[in-house]
Amino acid sequence: MKVENLRRAAGSSSPQPGMITIKPGLAVTAMLTGLSAMTVARLRRPFGTANNVILATTAAMILSRPLGLSVQRHVTTQTPNASMKIIEVKPFSFFGTPAHFVSTDNPEASTLFS
């Protein structure tokens, strides 16, 4: 995602009301690959070999991409209410990797912590 696109999104509403998207599918990929590797490794011979563990992990990584996008769309990016807005997007470098800090404002949720 380019910095210009993030800055433009900070000044306007999200593509879909109540949706904020930052990084798709990392947790889904980690869970699926870990579970598939553990499951295959616990099988008895001849199925629990290293080749089958690698094959199961590769298949899980391939399947996790569309599943991660679906989870992101329907679960992780739902804001608590429609009043949440992006205030500012600050690009920075984290150990040489580009990253962004997104500041938000949610006036309806401000009474939860007072």
| Strand residues, percent | 15-25%
Tell me the helix content. Answer: 40-55%
**Shape descriptor:** elongated
Q: How confident overall, as mean pLDDT?
A: 75
Largest sheet: 2 strands, antiparallel
Element pattern in H and E? HHHEE
Please report the distance between the alpha carbons of the first and last residues. 35 Å
Number of strands: 2
Secondary-structure-based class equals alpha+beta
Report the C-alpha radius of gyration, rounded.
Answer: 19 Å
Description of the molecule:
- The chain is α+β, with helices and mostly antiparallel strands and 114 residues long.
- It is built from three helices and two strands.
- It has a two-stranded antiparallel ribbon.
- Strand 1 and strand 2 form a beta hairpin.
- Helix 2 packs antiparallel against helix 3.
- The two termini are 35 Å apart.
- 7% of the residues are buried.
Summarize this structure briefly:
With 114 residues, this protein is of the alpha+beta class.
Primary descriptors:
single chain, 114 residues, alpha+beta, 2 domains, two-stranded antiparallel ribbon, 3 helices, 17% strand
Give the topology.
Blueprint: H1 3-11, H2 26-41, H3 50-76, E1 85-94, E2 97-105
Antiparallel strand pairs: 1-2
Helix pairs in contact: 2-3
